[in-house]
Amino acid sequence: MGLEATELWMTKVLKDGIPLVQWLSDNVSRADDDAVVEKLKVLIEEEDEVRDVCEARWIASERAWRWKLYAQLYDVDKTALPPARPSFKEAAPDEGSDGAEDAWGELDLEGCSEPSFSAQENPDYPPFSTFLRQNLRHLALNFASELKLRQARILAEECSLDSMILCDQIPLHAQPSDPDHGCDLISLLPRPQPRRSSPRNPDSVIRIVFRGGHQEPELYSNNQLTEWYLRRVNAIDNNTGHIDTAIEFVQHGASFGIHGLELIAEDLNLLSKLLYEAPDQSKCQWTLDDWRSKSSDEVVDAYLRGSTPQTLTRNINRLVLPYLGVMESRRARISAPSWETTIPDAIRFWALSQADNLPLLAAIIQASSPTLRLPERSIKNNEELARIAIACVYTSSRLDQWNLMNKIFECMPAFPDAEPVPKNFRASEFLRDLFNTPEVLNSSSDITHQLYQVLTKTSAGSLSAILDGLDDHLTTAEVLARWNVPVRLKDLIIKFQGNRTEQEKLATKMARQEGGLEMESEDEWEALMEGMIELSCPGRVFDGLEKNHIMRLFFSGLLTSGKFKLAKALFSSSCGGHPLSADVQEELVICASREYYDNAESGNQNVGEMRLALECLSAARSTPQIQNERDFIEATSRLASFKLCSQPGVLMTPIQIRLKPNKLDLIEQLLSTNGDAYKHQDMILELVNKLGFGHDALSQIRALAFIVESAISAGDFPVANETCHRMVTVLGTMKKRPRKLEPQEKLNSASEVVWRMCAKLGTCSDTNFPGSDPEKRSVLLGHAIILCPAEEISGLLAKWREIEAEELMKKCTSHDERSPLMSRGASNANGNDSPQSNSRPNSRMSNLANSASSLTGDIAIRAASKTFGKAAALFPFKTRNLSLSASPRISTPTTALGQIDTRVGSDYGSHNHSRSSTPSHEPTNISQPLANLVGEDGFGIGADRLTTALSNKFTSGVGWLIGANEEV
User: Fold this and answer.
1) Residue 626 and residue 586 in contact, taking contact as beta carbons nearer than 8 Å
2) Burial letters 31-70, b for 16+ CB under 10 A, else e
3) What's the rounded Cα separation, in Å, for the pair 10 and 21?
4) Where is this region: Disordered (predicted)?
5) CA gap 415, 436 in Å, rounded
6) 3-state secondary structure of 497
7) Is residue 883 over pLDDT 60?
């Protein structure tokens, strides 16, 4: 309605005598837009009527255009739209201005009301009045961001919007292949296009005057378009990872004729194969940037990761070779060095990295077998195939796939035309030298590749010889693996070849079956023995060990495996023509038993390792050494029963018992921790003997000394006294032996222990040993005096004198207590009842005191006499020239051992005491300790020492007795 009214109005407004509409049409057709616009602007400024009619026309046409656009965007009822815009017609000028004024009067713009339609009732659509005020460019960008691409396309076409700016607002996940908005997305994509010419009509001129010039979108160059597509692809890849979407964008860009997208198209296609077609897709979540940063070797490894031996060849053909073909073409285009070896180099590098993945290595080696046609082979060069196999097999760490290594060896080519190697060529030594090259030694992780690089310098003849050595090494490795001691092929060369120590360790491990193989039958163990002997042949792994040594290692392993009956049976058999001597059998049995012993946790010989240690000794014939080992085990078990501790709360283990520097410390610990153990002397001595001291009298004496110490601590004088006499007896036995068997130093040590124990027990007071016998103590002191050093005699004599005086005092006290009773009895018998008897108590007390004083003097005299007599009894031993009969107090020895029984008489020669009532005392035996301490020739052992001591100490030791006698 508005367009018709304004057109009618424009026909009534005249310019140069013709209607305005006619004037505009003529100028538009004859001049360019800029000239017409300038003329119209001048006309509008000069004539208000023209300004008013042109403004009305612009408003009406703008309203009609927006209405049409609104209907397209929101699918409103098109029947409610105003009629289509009529085309301008040539109108005859009106006659006079009155007609024109009538025409203005007939134009009623206010009467045009906004049409009503159903779309306005939809809350999702804005009202038309709002749409009239909206910025269409911003509206188009909103439509693009919300994936309302149909509306965005309409606005882009109608408003000539920038396609790059508009497409940048489209979400990255939008796909051109999407059935909902794909076509609209494709129509919005930037592309090369010519500049569009604006329509030439009066309405366009009026629009330019009132709205400003229309800005056409910028035309982009091919480089700008290429950069946009690259940015779009990178954004999609980095933010969404939708490689397929990126590929679609690149494909459409290429279809538009945009150049420079070929490389990214190749990368996207190859990356999509990795992400969507590779066997292991979970570990290849790469972006396009990651793809570009990877080397060809890494990409090949990613393509083949997760392949199986059955699918490896197919994956190489469909994934790896297309990729390597593209890389080769790129390198060829830039003339990169060695571009023609791109494919074989990548395949070789991947194969060398499979040294520990033998199934895949065997698969690619089999796919490269010389029996196949050359185009079908993955590795086409025979020498390269051999080098790859040698490098991988010798550096592989797998110990359980020898069958695959044999399959690899079976695919090796022959080199019949190769130049023969020298006769002194040794493949093992050659390989050892290769492993010792700086290139291989200095490589930590890629030793396989380094070994291959070194092998590239070898000739075909050397490769053939190395393959022959590989056959021998595989045979050796299979034998070792059969007996659960597998080793790497590399170790056969660099570790065991020429190394006797390592060969012995391996043979020991093989013999002991540390791999865990359970073998019970004799045939299996004999097969193991024959296998070990076979491996000792020249060129094999045990070539540095003699056959007898192999046999020793075999039986050692048999014994440590607990097969004692089988070992005993094989000891007695011929053992495959390699018998062992009895000494070797004894050594093997003892070593195995000690190993069990040292590993035992409990000392009980009936359980665990200790039981095995004891049973192991039965595998060979009993010998003194084997019996000693058995005794030591039994002694350990007995000690363990007493629960000896190495530290508080921790029981002593067998290995601690064996490692004890002085085994007698165990006896001392046993006696100190078990209060009643000292009473069982025979058991203690049996332990001493079984601990290895059966022929060591000094150790027995020391053990007896421990018993004495324990008895003293317990206050048991009888046991202590008996043990001391037993020590003296053992010492006497030692002195009878030749000095070769019992050296003087050892004899002196034994004497030291004996005299100190006798002295310690003899000098103990009655408070420590209630009821102890002074006579027995004096005898012990006599033993101590005879055996002690010279400087100790005076002190011991003083102790002995005290004991003798104590004994005499006790006897005198007993006599004095009996004397008054005897006198009273005599008086009563004589009838002496005079009254004066009651008045003489003081006189009797005085007589008693005198009697006691007289008796004390008598005791002193007797003690001095006995001391002189006993000391004199020792003098016959000071020299061989002095006859034993020189002393009337000493009886002649009655035996060959010179047993001396010197007894001192009760009256001590011609000396008679003046008191007839003094009791005659029993003789004291000080010479008794000399028994068994005299040599076979009748003279005392160490007599010169004793004589010197007596001559130096006698006066000072007993001189006081003389003074006492004089005082009396």
Assistant:
1) yes
2) eeeeebbebbeebbeeeebbbebbebbbebbbbbebbbbb
3) 6
4) 183-203, 814-850, 888-926
5) 27
6) coil
7) no
Cα 811 versus chain centre, distance: 82
691 or 577, which is more confident: 691
Q: Which carries the bigger pLDDT value, residue 76 or residue 304?
A: 304
Residue 818, CA distances (Å) to 809, 827, 845, 856 in order: 14, 15, 15, 17
Non-local (6+) Cβ contacts of 282 within 8 A are: none
Give 832's DSSP letter: -
Q: Which of 564, 534, 512 is nearest to 572 (CA)?
A: 564
Instruction: Enumerate residues 6+ apart whose C-beta is below 8 A from 8.
Output: 103, 106, 107
| CB-neighbour burial class of residue 390 (10 A; exposed 0-12, middle 13-18, buried 19+) | buried
The region of weakest confidence among 274-278, 432-436, 668-672, 860-864 is 860-864
Report how far residue 635's alpha carbon sits from residue 652's, in angstroms, rounded to the nearest whole number: 13
Residue 940, strand partner residues: 934
Burial bucket for residue 564 (CB in 10 Å: 0-12, 13-18, 19+)? buried
E runs forming strands in 729-800 = none
Quickly list H helices, 831-880. 841-874
How far is it, in rounded angstroms, from Cα 5 to Cα 2? 5
Q: What is the DSSP string of 395-442?
A: H---SS-HHHHHHHHHTPPP-TTSPPPPTT--HHHHHHHHHTSHHHHT
Report residue 851's pLDDT band, with 50, 70 and 90 as the boundaries: very low
**Helix, strand, or coil (residue 803):** helix
pLDDT digits (tens, 9 = 90+) for 360-384: 999 999 999 999 999 999 999 999 9
Instruction: Report the first-to-last Cα separation within the chain, whole angstroms.
Output: 177
The residue written with tokens 């659509």 in the block is 125
Q: How distant, in Å, are the alpha carbons of 455, 496, 634 from that of 554?
A: 39, 18, 28
Q: Quick one: tokens of 659?
A: 């490692």
What single string gives the DSSP state of each residue in 353-374?
TTTT-HHHHHHHHHTT-TTS-G
Eight-state DSSP code of residue 540:
S
916 pLDDT above the threshold of 70: no
Torsion angle, alpha carbons of 629, 634, 640, 644, to 10: -60
Please state the φ and ψ torsions of residue 620, each to the nearest 5 degrees: -120, 165
Closest CA to 812 of 847, 762, 862, 770: 862
pLDDT-derived band at 411 (thresholds 50, 70, 90) equals very high
Q: Are 107 and 5 in contact (CB under 8 A)?
A: yes
Spatial separation of the C-alpha atoms in residues 136 and 143, rounded to whole Å: 10
Instruction: State the pLDDT confidence band at 830, using cuts at 50, 70 and 90.
Output: very low
The helix, strand and coil proportions of the chain, stated in percent and rounded to the nearest 5, come to 65, 0, 35
Tokens found for residue 516: 């865990």
Residue 16 burial by CB count (10 A; 0-12/13-18/19+): exposed, middle or buried? exposed
Give the tokens for residue 472: 């021998």
Block residue for tokens 């025409």: 103
Q: How many CB atoms lie within 10 A of CB 203?
A: 22
Q: Is 715:693 a contact under the CB 8 Å cutoff?
A: no
Distance set, CA 284 to CA 302, 308, 318, 358 (Å): 7, 17, 17, 23
Degrees to nearest 5, angle at CA 78 with 76 and 83:
140
Distance CA(399)–CA(490), nearest Å, equals 11
Please give the distance of CA 255 from its chain centroid, rounded to a whole number: 61
In the chain, the amino acid numbered 413 is P
| 297, HSE (Cβ side, Cα atoms, 13 Å) | 9
Provide the pLDDT for residue 869. 45
**Angle (nearest 5°) at CA 397 between 391 and 401:** 95
- Which DSSP category does 940 fall into? B
The type of residue at 806 is E
Q: Which two three-digit tokens encode residue 207?
A: 């629009």
